[in-house]
Amino acid sequence: MEKQTTRPGIFAVSAPSGTGKTTLNSRLERDHPDVEISVSLTTRKQRPGELAGKHYHFVDRSEFEKNVAAGKMLEWAEVFGNLYGTSKAEVDRIVSKGHKVILEIDVQGWMTAKPKLPGAISIFILPPSMIDLWHRLEKRGTDSPEVRWRRFQAARDEIAAGRIYDFFIVNDDLERAYKELESMIVSGEPGHTSQEAGEALCNRLLNEFEQSDKILELKKIRQKV
Ligand code: ADP
Ligand code: 5GP
Predict the structure, then answer these.
(1) Which end of the chain, C or N, has fewer beta carbons within 10 A?
(2) Which CATH superfamily includes the segment(s) 39-98?
(3) What is the mean pLDDT of residues 167-190?
(4) Domain coordinates in residue numbering, the chain
(5) What pLDDT does 4 receive?
(6) Nearest ligand, CA of residue 154?
(7) What is the pLDDT of residue 152?
(8) Radius of gyration of the chain (CA)
(9) Distance between CA atoms of residues 147 and 142, nearest Å
(10) What sign results for the dihedral spanned by CA atoms 180, 184, 190, 195?
C-alpha cells in the first residue's frame, strides 16, 4: 500500500461547469504568487486562447493511458467524453516549492484523490441558482446548445454528490465569493459554510432543478430538439 502522509497546503476546488471556478481560481493565482493551480493532463482539444503547459498538458488518449498504466496519476476521470487527470509529479513540483496547490478537478476526481490526500481541504463552489448557472453557461458561449445541456445535466449530478466537500461557497457576488475563497486558501481560515449548511444549499438547487417552471420550460425545449 502507498504510504500516506498528511498533505496540508493542498486544496481541491470543484464546481459544476459554468459556476465560475476558473474565474475565481485564476484570479487567486494571479494575485498570490505562492498559489498555483495544478496543470492537468487532458485529451480534449485545445480551445482558442488556451496555452499548452499553462492551462493543460494536451495529450492524445494513448499517451494519457500510458501515464495511467505507469502509475503516474494521482487521479483521473472521464468528463464529457474526454480524459482529465492530475499527475503526482505536478502536485509534488508545486508542494516542493512551498507553494499552495489548487486541484481544479471534478467531483469524480476528488472522490478518487480524497483518500490519497489526508489533510487536503476541499471546497465546492455553487451557483446562486440553477437558472443562473444556465445563463452563465449561455453567456460564456464556449459550447454548442447540445454540450451546454449536457453540462447542465452533469451539474445536477455533481451537486447531488456535493456533500463530500468540507466547505461550500456560493458564487453570487463575485467579489464576495473571491474574498471567501482567498481567506480560506491564502489565510488558512475555515470556510463560512461547512458540510451541513452546504448540503442544505445543494438540496435547494436540486429541488429547483426538478421543480422550477423556468427549468421545466428548458427541458421541454430540449425534448423537442
Ligand atoms: P467554470 O470554470 O466553473 O466552468 P467560468 O469561470 O468559465 O466557470 O465562468 C462561467 C461564466 O460565468 C463566465 O462567463 C464568467 O465570466 C461568469 N461568472 C463567473 N462568476 C460570476 C458571478 N459571480 N456573477 C456573474 N457571472 C459570473
Ligand atoms: P474544461 O473542459 O471546461 O476545462 O473542464 C471540464 C471539467 O473537467 C471541469 O469540471 C474540470 O474541473 C474537470 N477537470 C479539469 N482538470 C481535471 C483533472 O485533472 N482531473 C479531473 N478529475 N477533472 C478535471
Answers:
(1) N
(2) Guanylate Kinase phosphate binding domain (3.30.63.10)
(3) 96
(4) 10-34+100-224, 39-98
(5) 59
(6) 2
(7) 95
(8) 17
(9) 9
(10) positive
Is the model's pLDDT at 193 over the cut of 70? Answer: yes
Phi, psi of 131 (to 5 degrees): -70, -35
Q: How far is the CA of 22 from the centre of ligand 1 (A)?
A: 7
Q: Tell me the CA–centroid distance for residue 104 and ligand 2, in Å.
A: 7
- Mean pLDDT rounded to a whole number for the chain: 94
- When pLDDT is cut at 50, 70 and 90, the band that residue 1 belongs to is very low
Query: Can you tell me which residue has the cell 480551445?
Result: 47
Residues 174, 146: Cα–Cα separation, whole Å: 27
β-strand partners of 87: 73
Q: Domain 10-34+100-224 has what CATH class?
A: alpha beta
Reported as a single tens digit per residue, the pLDDT across 50-60 is 999 999 999 99
Measure Cα distances from 133 to 56, 84, 209 in Å.
Answer: 24, 23, 11
Q: Is any ligand 2 atom within 6 A of the Cβ of residue 36?
A: no
Quick check: 168 and 197 in contact, CB under 8 A? yes
pTM: 0.94
